[in-house]
Amino acid sequence: MSDETGKGRNPVRNVVRNIYKDTTLKHLYPQRYRAACGNPVISGRVVFLEIREKNLSDNFRLIRAALERRNNSNQSGTGGGHIKYELITICIREGIENRMTVAKNCIEAIPVLAQAQFIFINESSYFFSSLPIRPETTVIQTWHACGAFKRFGYSAVGKGFGTSRQDLDRYPVHRNFDYVTVSSPEVTWAYAEAFHMEEMEERILPIGVSRTDMFFNRRFREKAYGKTAWVLRRMAPHLFLKNTPDQAASAHGKDAYTRLGDYYSDTVKETSQTDSASAVPGKKIILYAPTFRGTVAHACAPDRLDLVRMKQELRKDYILLINHHPFIKKKDRPAIPESCRDFAFDVTEQLSIEELLTAADICITDYSSLVFEYSLFERPVVFFAYDIKEYMDERGFYYPLEEMMPGPICSRTQEVTDILTDPQKLMDLARVRNFKYRFMSACDGHATARVLKLMDRCEGARS
């Protein structure tokens, strides 16, 4: 975690940083936690600990919803004897807010965590790793990424992105996990290495990643198409004119617009064609979803994809939707050129990445783990990796990129457009399927159910 290593900072700031970390991580947080353990664990208390996000995110939303359904079943007498769950979400904003705010959030979180029967976490955390977690509490790490792509944690020691082994040993950031859920047996070794759990690899469970369950839900897919159409219809109504683009200016009245957006509405019962239709009539959607560059605290967006050239060569058949990484602040996102605003649209605020993956016909990314989720749809993916050498030196990968990737790797925009206009180059279905089965075999729509079964086993062992 390069934003925490102190690299590139002046000596005085490094001293201040180390004093702060020693005070909080070695003394304040552990002591507060031990004191809070004077109170007993509350049976059924489940805490979802968000490290950076402001709200409940990805995996947690599905797991919490499943537990809420259990609670409702218990009330109706059909719950099968499960305990009543007390569901709590805590957001500490580590690495995002200023240190005093984070420290206040952590101190307030400690008494709640100390009495939890289950704690879910989906990130790395200096704060959480500093706590001497009591044996009555079960910690389940549902990591925020599928597969195993970019090196992180102990795997990134010595890399530009990572910290030193000495620093990780002094200030652990991947610790206190009883279980880790991953997307396939293929990647358990990588997570064991990253979390320094080589002696506990049996605790890394290939039972799937909860948030992928939504992709197997027909209702979610229908709503994702519908919301995408609804958003684009308001951002770019010209896309929904029945007339050709050259005639669009002369069209008037409601009848000039297709009702495709309405087709996906909640009131429509006949949805047999939604999986094969596009959210935009006569166009295919390209999703461009790159990962961030730089550090978590100072993330920046790549801006090397030439949108003007993309429009010139692709506007007849495609539109481009852009989703920036959540670490990139809105003010730091590259502006879309004026001439491209009828072709390219930044929908980071309007549509979730899950909705976009569902609605997109093609995905362009770089080093983002969303490629694993997207493989579930068996659709074309193109890798725009213009800085692959630098990224390799800075971060590194768990697998050789050229062997692993299920689609073509490009370094220039012209290569991307050439591939997008040549169906034979665009996609090798067998390669995509092999990639999916290798890295996502446990993601079958039932991952959340298996997480709940894990909780049941832990409850049974405790009793």
Summarize the structure.
This protein has 463 residues and is of the alpha/beta class. It has 17 helices and 14 strands. It folds into two domains: 2-213 and 445-462, CDP-glycerol glycerophosphotransferase, N-terminal domain (Rossmann fold); 283-439, Rossmann fold.
Description:
It is a single chain. With 463 residues, the chain is α/β, with parallel strands linked by helices. The chain folds into two domains: 2-213 and 445-462, 3-Layer(aba) Sandwich (Rossmann fold), CATH 3.40.50; 283-439, CDP-glycerol glycerophosphotransferase, C-terminal domain (Rossmann fold, 3-Layer(aba) Sandwich). The chain has helices at 11-36, 58-76, 99-114, 126-129, 165-170, 188-194, 218-235, 260-263, 307-314, 353-359, 370-375, 388-394, 401-404, 413-420, 423-426, 429-439, 447-462, and strands at 45-50, 86-91, 118-121, 138-141, 179-181, 204-205, 284-288, 293-294, 299-300, 318-322, 344-346, 362-365, 381-384, 409-410. A six-stranded parallel beta sheet has the order 2-1-3-4-5-6, sandwiched between helices. Strands 11-10-7-12-13-14 form a six-stranded parallel beta sheet. It has a two-stranded antiparallel sheet with strand order 8-9. Helix 1 runs parallel beside helix 3, helix 2 (58-76) packs across helix 17 and helix 9 packs parallel to helix 14 (413-420). The protein is globular and about 65 Å long.
